[in-house]
C-alpha cells in the first residue's frame, strides 16, 4: 500500500536541516519500500504493508529521534486518503503557494474556525474539510498573523503544506 508521510519540522538546529536522501534511508532502514521525497521540506511517499497509521507514525518518529536526536511529529496518510484530501480543496481558485492546508493527526472540530477568526484578515478564507484546515491566505502566509496562530498547542498535532505540495504528492501517488 502507498503512504504519505509529512514531517512537522526538518530544522534540527540553526543552519542544520534534514537531507532528503537521509530521510529516504531512514524509511528504508525501518522496513518501508521505495521511499521518494518531494522538495526539501519533509514530504515522503513510500510503500508498506497495510497497517495502522498510528503505528507507522510511531515507527517513523522513533527512527527520526534515534537518528537525529530530536523528536518531530510525523503525520501519515494512506495514498487513497491523500488523493481524497487533494480532491477536497474548498478553494480551487486559490494561488498554489498562498493556499495552505493544515493536515491534522486528529480531525479538527468545525468550531476550530471560530478560534482562528480573531487572527484572520477579512480577505482570508478558512474551511475545514474532513478534519483538515484549509486557508486561502490571499497573500504570502508569512505576512499574516493568522500563520502564527496555527500552533500545536491551539490546534493539535498537524503540519502545513501549500497547494503546490499537495498536488505534487498526489501526482507522485498516481
UniProtKB/TrEMBL annotation:
It comes from the Bacteria. Pfam families: DUF1697. SUPFAM superfamilies: SP0830-like (SSF160379). PANTHER family: BLL4334 PROTEIN (PTHR36439), DUF1697 DOMAIN-CONTAINING PROTEIN (PTHR36439:SF1). This is Uncharacterized conserved protein, DUF1697 family.
Amino acid at each position: 500500500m502507498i503512504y504519505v508521510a509529512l514531517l512537522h519540522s526538518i530544522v534540527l538546529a540553526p543552519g542544520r536541516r534534514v537531507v532528503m536522501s537521509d530521510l529516504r534511508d531512514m524509511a528504508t532502514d525501518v522496513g518501508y519500500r521505495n521511499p521518494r521525497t518531494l522538495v526539501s521540506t519533509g514530504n515522503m511517499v513510500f510503500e508498506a504493508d497495510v497497517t495502522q497509521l498510528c503505528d507507522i507514525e510511531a515507527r517513523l518518529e522513533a527512527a527520526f529521534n534515534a537518528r537525529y536526536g530530536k523528536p518531530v511529529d510525523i503525520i501519515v496518510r494512506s495514498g487513497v486518503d491523500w488523493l481524497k484530501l487533494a480532491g477536497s480543496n474548498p478553494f480551487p481558485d486559490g494561488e498554489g503557494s498562498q493556499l495552505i492546508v493544515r493536515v491534522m493527526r486528529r480531525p479538527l472540530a468545525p468550531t476550530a474556525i471560530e478560534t482562528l477568526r480573531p487572527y484572520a484578515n477579512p480577505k482570508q478564507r478558512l474551511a475545514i474539510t474532513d478534519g483538515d484546515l484549509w486557508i486561502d491566505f490571499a497573500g504570502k502566509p508569512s505576512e499574516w498573523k493568522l500563520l502564527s496562530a496555527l500552533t500545536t498547542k491551539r490546534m493539535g498535532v498537524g503540519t502545513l503544506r501549500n497547494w503546490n505540495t499537495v498536488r505534487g504528492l498526489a501526482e507522485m501517488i498516481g
